[in-house]
């Protein structure tokens, strides 16, 4: 058996719609081996599809097909720590687990770049799948089925407070509220901030993050669907956050925090309770610079 460890991811990072994403130290673990037939189980009670529609199974099988290799079947056991449909890259984690796992079972015929290409074609955009595989902060463009990307380690000291609500927001719904056209000035607003976000996170210029996280392409539209989000942003800034943004398509919210702000989590949780917020949990996370790892068991 092999064990595939895939990090959660937070896409867009504010203005970098469909192009920026970073990996966080919260992991799905998938155990996988070749098998005559199909056997899929959940190790932790999280409900998952156990038939051919299972995303890990489907993408693994797809890689066998792409490589022209005979496919007997797979035995898969999943440990899902990344909450589903919350904007933390749970489906990308399944896609990467399937592709990276199958690649190892096949003797590694695909390069990392080829796996990123296949994953992004499968997902439709590269901003979750690329950091899920590579770790760190990834800037990526999908053009003609190929991903052009740069992965940067984030070495500066920064923490990520993930405010995870108890409701789901499917990406298709969150994309459905976006306009077909935006003013030219909004395009300029976002591209300057996306560039600033990428280089500020890489270089540790965290004083830029509040401006760099601003966005006019998706967050203003999506905030309407996440009740309480603006209050949580305001609270986080009040408590000293560098920056706040909607993680991926939402509904999870991320606040980037200086690590010396040791009281942040406790104070934020208490403030939410005092203000009558129900159904949100706070998880403190850090950057994962390593990406997907695989062990033989
Ligand atoms: N960039 C995507 C979006 C991320 O915002 O819709 C979701 O996977």
Please work out how many helical segments DSSP would assign: 10
Structural class: alpha+beta
Poorly predicted runs: none
Termini separation? 5 Å
Q: Look at the structure and give the CATH class of the largest domain.
A: Alpha Beta
- Tell me the domain tally: 2
Q: Strand tally, please?
A: 11
CATH topology of the largest domain: Ribosomal Protein S5, domain 2
The SSE string, one letter per element, is EEEHEHHHEEEHHHHHEEHEE
CATH architecture heading of the largest domain: 2-Layer Sandwich
Which ligands appear in the coordinates?
Answer: L-homoserine
User: How much is the radius of gyration in Å?
Assistant: 19 Å
Shape: globular
The quaternary state of the protein chains shown equals: single chain
Amount of beta strand: 25-35%
Task: Describe the fold and architecture.
By secondary structure, this protein is of the alpha+beta class. It has 2 domains: about 1-155 and about 290-295, Ribosomal Protein S5, domain 2, CATH 3.30.230.10; about 160-285, Alpha-Beta Plaits (2-Layer Sandwich), CATH 3.30.70. It is about 35% helix and about 25% strand. It is built from 10 helices and 11 strands. The chain has helices spanning about 55-65, 90-105, 110-125, 130-135, 170-175, 185-205, 210, 220, 230-240, 265-275; strands at about 1-10, 20-35, 35-40, 75-80, 135-145, 145-150, 160-165, 245, 255, 280-285, 295. Strands 1, 2, 3, 4, 5, 6 and 11 form a 7-stranded mixed β-sheet that branches. Strands 8-9-7-10 form a 4-stranded antiparallel β-sheet. A hairpin with an 8-residue loop joins β1 and β2. α2 (about 90-105) crosses α3. It is globular and about 55 Å long. The termini are close together. About 45% of the residues are buried. L-homoserine (HSE) binds near residues 174 and 249. L-homoserine binds near residues 171 and 248.
């Amino acid at each position: 058996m092999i064990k595939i460890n895939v990090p959660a991811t937070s896409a867009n990072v504010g203005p970098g719609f469909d192009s920026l994403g970073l990996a966080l130290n919260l992991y799905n673990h998938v155990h996988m081996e070749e098998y005559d037939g199909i056997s899929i189980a959940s190790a932790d009670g999280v409900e998952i599809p156990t038939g051919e529609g299972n995303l890990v199974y489907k993408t693994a099988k797809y890689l066998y097909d792409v490589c022209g290799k005979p496919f007997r079947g797979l035995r898969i056991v999943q440990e899902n720590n990344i909450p589903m449909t919350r904007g933390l890259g749970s489906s990308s984690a399944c896609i990467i687990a399937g592709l990276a796992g199958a690649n190892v079972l096949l003797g590694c015929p695909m390069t990392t770049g080829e796996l990123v290409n296949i994953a992004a074609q499968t997902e439709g955009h590269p901003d979750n799948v690329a950091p899920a595989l590579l770790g760190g902060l990834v800037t990526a463009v999908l053009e003609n089925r190929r991903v052009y990307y740069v992965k940067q380690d984030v070495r500066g000291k920064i923490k990520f407070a993930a405010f995870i609500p108890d409701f789901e927001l499917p990406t298709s719904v969150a994309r459905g509220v976006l306009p077909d056209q935006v003013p030219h000035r909004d395009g300029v607003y976002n591209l300057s901030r996306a560039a600033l976000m990428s280089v500020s996170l890489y270089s540790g210029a965290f004083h830029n993050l509040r401006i760099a996280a601003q966005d006019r392409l998706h967050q203003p539209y999506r905030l309407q669907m996440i009740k309480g989000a603006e209050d949580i942003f305001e609270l986080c800034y009040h408590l000293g956050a560098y920056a706040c943004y909607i993680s991926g398509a939402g509904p999870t919210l991320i606040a980037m925090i200086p690590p010396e702000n040791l009281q942040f989590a406790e104070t934020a949780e208490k403030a939410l309770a005092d203000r009558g917020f129900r159904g949100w949990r706070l998880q403190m996370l850090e950057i994962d610079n390593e990406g997907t790892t695989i062990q033989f068991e």
